Amino acid sequence: MTVNWFSHMGESVGPVLIDEASIQKRVGELGARITEDYRGRPPHLIGVLRGASVFHADLIRAIDLGLSFDFIAVASYGPATASSGEVRILKDLDESLEGRDVLLVEDIVDTGLTLHYLRQNLLSREPKTLRVVALLNKPSRRKIEVPVDYVGFEIPDRFVVGYGLDYDQRYRNLPDICVLNLP
Ligand code: IMP
Ligand code: MG
After folding, report:
1. Which carries the bigger pLDDT value, residue 160 or residue 6?
2. Which member of 13, 54, 68, 147 lies 3.0 to 4.6 Å from 164 by CB, making a disulfide possible if both were Cys?
3. How far is CA 165 from CA 148, 154, 174, in A?
4. In the predicted structure, residue 80 carries a pLDDT above the cut 70
């Protein structure tokens, strides 16, 4: 698709890494696996705002089970394209996790620092189980080992935008996942 937006800080949208049709197909597969794995024990999905919001909205409709969901918003201190590991909760969950089968929905696991923090935080609320589904995984960037139970796509060490992922809050509404050429 053509991107008609002004460059914000000298960046430009580069090639499509994963197109819309491939994303939809893979989300359908993840939903089918989750449906099998959670049959008889409805999952409570937690979407991590804002990046996972688009993935979350598609994933819940690919799961053929009764389920519930909630959102948590986090921010990590640091520059636009790197995570410092210092995470802060901007909006907490509305509901308790105690005794529930919780599935954390993330957009991307990069260094793993955000997910590590979130896992510790959510585990302290005593869910019955906690698993993680991430649309994208950049294993080559990992700084801390952290389990990811369901992964959409493993991608190389490139900064990507679209399908919820941003650069300085922009490009989240691109339907494809694209490489961003940084200034
Ligand atoms: P981590 O703490 O380094 O694993 O980073 C996690 C967060 O950094 C993600 O939830 C994203 O918000 C952001 N992030 C990491 N890599 C990218 C990328 O390639 N594009 C857009 N955001 C990214
Ligand atoms: Mg982000």
Report:
1. 160
2. 54
3. 18, 15, 9
4. no
What are the beta bridge partners of residue 130?
A: 102
- Give bridge partners of residue 132 from the DSSP assignment: 104
Cα(40) to centroid(ligand 1), Å: 33
Encode 41-59 in three state secondary structure.
CCCEEEEEECCCHHHHHHH
SS3 68: strand
Distance of CA 107 to the CA centre of its chain: 2
* Mean pLDDT of the region 132-156: 97
Residue 75 corresponds to which amino acid?
Answer: A
| Separation of alpha carbons 59 and 52, rounded Å | 10
Give the position, in ligand 1's atom list, of the atom nearest the Cα of 109. Answer: 4
pTM more than 0.90: yes
Q: How far apart are CA 103 and CA 45, in angstroms?
A: 5
Tokens of 145: 């080992």
pLDDT band at 78; cut points 50, 70, 90: low
Q: Which residue has the tokens 């598609």?
A: 58
The set of protein residues with a Cβ atom below 6 angstroms from ligand 1 is 51, 76, 83, 106-115, 159-161, 165
H or E element, residue 113:
helix 113-123
Out of 55, 165, 173, give the residue to mutate to test ligand 1, the one with the largest number of ligand atoms within 8 Å of its CB: 165
